[in-house]
């Protein structure tokens, strides 16, 4: 909305998908770039929040068909002379570092902005992370919009009842509280590699990471982007015996999840590739 994305005419994916995608001139390659941070999650747990920012930004470039290859950051905090703020800063840096080490992605640069306060009250800790990914073949770029009525909508990854720091709590109840969603790095890496394989082999028609707003918002964004409707059925999504509430499943912000669109002709081959990866069919494009 504030910058001409057609400057130099390298933009391959217009605004409105998971990542910006730019061609590398005179090659078949492209780069995908995403910037992420959920400051509410970082407020509840700065270590997990910063780690989640790395994971989500990686998921976004993976959704575009790219392999994450580099990280930069902008670390925004309040007054570091306050013990609590300095602790937030320390934990966020450790969360980014540990996660990048696990994913084997170098942090190539960064920036720090401190003393961000209004009348003595600090902003939420906001360790913003940017990830760049490499696409070897421009023909294998993926976007998030639904492509065709009749295609299946599937959910890759586990959904837990995690509403701490969620959009759901903020929008409906104006609350930022609870326990931050957990990040299982091993599982995160597995589902990212699986989604990337599906894209490269042409087994899915669209992909979108599931983060702020959960399944409900992710599916709505895919519908908006593609110009289609959808029928959703969450009865296939596992849930604990303690609750049958659909809103917990619809708006949970569990990590390590993708919404994907699968054509009927690719359904069998897709399912043969699962090999233990959690998957549930949750609807159909209309």
Keywords:
286 residues; 5-stranded antiparallel β-sheet; 13 strands; globular
Layout: helices, strands, pairs:
Layout: E1 11-13, E2 20-23, E3 30-36, H1 39-44, H2 46-63, E4 67-76, H3 83-103, E5 111-113, E6 117-118, E7 121-122, E8 126-135, E9 152-156, H4 167-173, H5 185-200, E10 206-209, H6 214-226, E11 230-232, H7 246-251, E12 258-262, H8 267-272, E13 279-285
Parallel strand pairs: 4-5
Antiparallel strand pairs: 1-2, 2-3, 3-8, 4-8, 6-7, 9-12, 9-13, 10-12, 11-13
Helix pairs in contact: 2-3, 2-5
Structure description:
By secondary structure, the chain is of the alpha+beta class. The chain has eight helices and 13 strands. The strands form three sheets. A six-stranded mixed beta sheet has the order 1-2-3-8-4-5. Helix 3 (83-103) links the parallel strand 4 (67-76) and strand 5 (111-113). Helix 2 (46-63) runs parallel beside helix 3. The two termini are 29 Å apart.
Ranges where pLDDT stays below 50 over 5 or more residues in a row are none
Estimate the global geometry from the Cα principal axes: globular
Largest sheet: 6 strands, mixed
Q: Which percent bin holds the helix content? A: 25-40%
Write down the secondary-structure element order: EEEHHEHEEEEEHHEHEHEHE
Identify the strand order in the major beta sheet: 1-2-3-8-4-5
Count of alpha and pi helical runs: 8
What is the SS-derived class?
alpha+beta
**Radius of gyration using CA atoms only:** 19 Å
Hey, roughly how much beta strand do the residues contain?
A: 15-25%
Mean pLDDT: 94
Distance linking N and C termini: 29 Å
How many strand units? 13
């Amino acid at each position: 909305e504030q910058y001409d994305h057609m400057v130099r005419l390298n933009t391959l994916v217009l605004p409105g998908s998971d990542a910006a995608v730019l061609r590398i001139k005179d090659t078949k390659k492209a780069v995908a770039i995403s910037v992420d941070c959920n400051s509410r999650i970082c407020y509840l747990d700065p270590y997990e929040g910063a780690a989640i920012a790395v994971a989500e930004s990686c998921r976004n470039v993976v959704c575009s068909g790219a392999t994450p290859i580099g990280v930069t950051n902008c670390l925004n905090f309040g007054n570091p002379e306050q013990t609590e703020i300095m602790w937030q800063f320390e934990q966020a840096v450790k969360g980014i570092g540990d996660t990048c080490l696990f994913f084997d992605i170098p942090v190539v640069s960064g920036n720090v902005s401190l003393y961000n306060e209004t009348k003595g009250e600090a902003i939420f800790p906001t360790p913003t992370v940017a990830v760049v990914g490499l696409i070897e073949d421009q023909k294998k770029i993926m976007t998030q919009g639904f492509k065709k009525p009749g295609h299946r909508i599937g959910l890759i990854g586990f959904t837990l009842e995690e509403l701490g720091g969620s959009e759901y709590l903020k929008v409906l109840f104006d609350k930022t509280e609870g326990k931050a969603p957990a990040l299982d790095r091993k599982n995160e890496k597995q589902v990212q590699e699986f989604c990337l394989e599906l894209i490269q082999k042409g087994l899915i028609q669209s992909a979108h990471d599931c983060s702020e707003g959960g399944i409900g918002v992710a599916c709505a964004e895919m519908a908006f982007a593609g110009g289609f409707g959808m029928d959703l059925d969450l009865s296939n999504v596992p849930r604990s015996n303690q609750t049958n509430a659909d809103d917990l499943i619809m708006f949970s912000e569990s990590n390590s999840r993708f919404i994907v669109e699968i054509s009927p002709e690719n359904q069998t081959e897709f399912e043969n590739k699962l090999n233990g990866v959690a998957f549930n069919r949750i609807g159909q494009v209309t």
